[in-house]
Amino acid sequence: MTQHSSTGPGVMLITGSRKGIGEFLSRYYIEKGWQVIGCSRGPASWVHPRYEHQQLDITDESAVISLFSSIRRNYGRLDAALNNAGIASMNHFTLTPAETVNRIFSTNVTGTFIVAREAARLMILQKSGRIVNFSSVAYPLNLQGESVYAASKAAVESLTKTMAGELAAWNITVNAIGPTPIETDLIRGVPAEKMESLLARLPARKAGTMEQVSHVIDFFLSPASECITGQILYLGGVG
Amino acid sequence: MKLQRSQIVQIISGSVANYSSQQQSDAISEESRLIGAGRVLDSIGLVSMLVELETRIADESNLSIRLMDDRAMSQSKSPFRTVGTLADYIDSLLPEVTES
């Protein structure tokens, strides 16, 4: 069983860890000494002695419950959960099928909810834990062409704030990061001129980096952040 | 192997004692109230107890159950009234559950 200290690395779950930001964060926290359990719909694309990959869809409730049963059996605790998995779809809302709405809300909202709920149940037993959800600047910027994605992130922010209140009694913090566009599969299909106009709306006027994301998460995970909960921290100067 | 009702009562009593001001499990009886007037747990204690209880039942029986579902919420009399009614409810759920 992995040893844990109140100030040092412990056991962390990262969803959507096969590639992109999730893979970056997994490798980053492994390097810092954490035991990382990752999951994604596809098989592991990389290996590490302190990385365990589980292939599952976070919208599959029973699969997520089984994942957390195995975390409890194998590691005995969960110190942090990063709800990174998410999907996007870019389209004018008048041209967006309801099926797209359901698909995006299923992964971004229901999936985030299920993972946070199961993480919180482990954390309640140990009376501590950190949950970090993923929002996006698409919501506060009311990004045109991203209506459904932005709405799903609005829901994630609402969940984050309510969960924070409901879990504070157990010393569990729940916060969210709102990244700016970062070069990943999620935005690879966005036309260049669309991206330029988006970046022009950011006070920082440039794309984000994965290092900025890990920097914010380090802040949320810090022992000194025990009373920082229910907060949404955007990158790019977005307020 | 299916847990006997007496074992279920014992598990519930232990979990309730962990979060109650009455710290001894032998001070918890089947009549101990979990909700409403005279309850032995506050709301935080009730949530903690239910989470721990589900975990302990999973450990003891290798079965995964969730106590707070639509079936529980739709009953005219809450199964969470007392230790005894909760034991009855869990006893009724166990034959239907699947391996965790």
Give a structural overview.
The complex is a heterodimer of chains A (239) and B (100). By secondary structure, chain A is of the alpha/beta class. Helices cover 41% and strands 15% of the residues of chain A. In chain A, strands 3-2-1-4-5-6-7 form a seven-stranded parallel beta sheet, sandwiched between helices. Chain B is mainly alpha-helical and 100 residues long. Chain B has four helices and no strands. The longest helix of chain B is centred in the middle third of the chain and has 19 residues, at 43-61. Classes of the chains: A alpha/beta (239), B mainly alpha (100). Chain A binds chain B through residues 65-66, 69, 72, 121, 124-125, 169-170, and chain B through 44, 47-48, 51-52, 55, 58, 64, 100.
What characteristics describe this protein?
heterodimer, A: 239 residues, alpha/beta, seven-stranded parallel beta sheet, 7 strands, 15% strand, globular, disordered N terminus, B: 100 residues, mainly alpha, 4 helices, 50% helix, 0% strand
Task: Please describe the topology of this protein.
The complex is a heterodimer of chains A (about 240) and B (about 100).
Chain A: E1 11-15, H1 20-31, E2 35-40, E3 51-55, H2 61-75, E4 80-83, H3 98-126, E5 129-134, H4 147-167, E6 172-178, H5 192-201, H6 210-221, E7 232-234
Parallel strand pairs in A: 1-2, 1-4, 2-3, 4-5, 5-6, 6-7
Chain B: H1 5-19, H2 43-61, H3 70-74, H4 83-93
Helix pairs in contact in B: 1-2, 1-4
Name the shape of chain A in a single word. globular
What portion of the residues of chain B fall into strands of 2 or more residues? Answer: under 5%
List low-pLDDT spans of chain A: 1-7
**Main sheet record of chain B:** none
What value does the average pLDDT of chain B take?
87
Instruction: State the shape of chain B.
Output: globular
Class by SSE composition of chain A: alpha/beta
